[in-house]
Amino acid sequence: MSNETIGNDSNLRFGLKHFPWLDPFVPHRWWRGGWLQTLSIKSVRTDLDTNQWPGAVQFDIVGDQTPPDVLSGYYLPSQVPGSDRPLVVIIHGMGGHARSGYMLSMAERLLEAGFPVVLWNNRGAGDSAQSCRRFHHPGFTDDLSGLCQYLRTERAAWCEHGLAAVAFSLGGNVLLRYLAEAGDDSQFSIAASISTPLDMHTTSQNLRRGANRLFDRYLLHRQQKELLREGSDLCDQERQVIQSARSVWDLDDRFTAPRFDYENAEEFYRENSAIYVLDKISIPTLLFHAMDDPVVDDDVFRDRDWSAEGPLYPALAESGGHTGFLDQDGQRWHERAIVNFFAHVDH
């Protein structure tokens, strides 16, 4: 196995040089630069309707708590005759849910290629919001592990050809942590993450600098809304802390960390960031990152030795923002690359 270090001159060329299924990213002429590419996800339009898709099933997973939390998702079968492709679980990022536009867009592209999909609501998000009193965080993998077990035991027909996964932003951290913890016992045989903040400490610091503070406020408000949902298991003091938080770091330092038995935000980030466990991942995993991402730092991608043989495959671009990647044809580069990756890489 040969390794090649990605440096300042070679980082963007590595994937294009080694992976025939990866094409270069050329940003849309009206959506240039990291911020515009990031904002482009608000322009996502899709005709996919989970209520109208033939054979769609909305399903619930009831927890063993008292009273139980109920997590939910949507199963959409492939409409391609004779397809033998794996079921793809799609996981959203902070503030999103199973039917967010970028989730439906990814699902639509996979379905067109013959992949059945599961659109998953994280604990407390989307249809899970009013039926979950408890919380999750970017290093909490129990729910994803429970979903895999449910699919394998209760819905075996859905995943008779195996399981794959796609995750966005902080959802990617959960996925990568799961893959590392599971190792060779992973229920997924192939995976992809888009714009994952591999080092949450560095990401949280970046969010508090310059214009990034606008995005920090946006993410904070989305997180506050999820945490303060009706019926959530919070005492009055915790509600006050959440409401008074002034940044994502502040929220994690004063609420998330102590809630999950960590001393402070620094310990919470150190113990739960995927960057520290990437080498434990054993399945083919595609990692997307744009060098103009206003959230995720470049160093974790620039300083790593990548191998053309995997299991970690970098898909790096000079532009694309945070989960944007809107190309010159008005299509999402990461969607096309993921379909190609799943179809052409052995797993």
State the CATH superfamily name of the largest domain.
Alpha/Beta hydrolase fold, catalytic domain
The rough form would be described as globular
Query: Structural class from helices and strands?
Result: alpha/beta
Number of DSSP strand runs: 10
Radius of gyration: 19 Å
Please identify, by name, the CATH architecture of the largest domain: 3-Layer(aba) Sandwich
The helicity comes to 25-40%
The arrangement of helices and strands along the chain is EHHEEEHEHEHEHHHHHEHEEH
Strand content: 5-15%
- What is the name of the CATH class of the largest domain? Alpha Beta
> How far is it from the N-terminal to the C-terminal residue, by CA?
18 Å
What features would you highlight for this structure?
single chain; 347 residues; alpha/beta; Rossmann fold; 8-stranded mixed β-sheet; two-stranded antiparallel ribbon; 12 helices; 15% strand; disordered N terminus
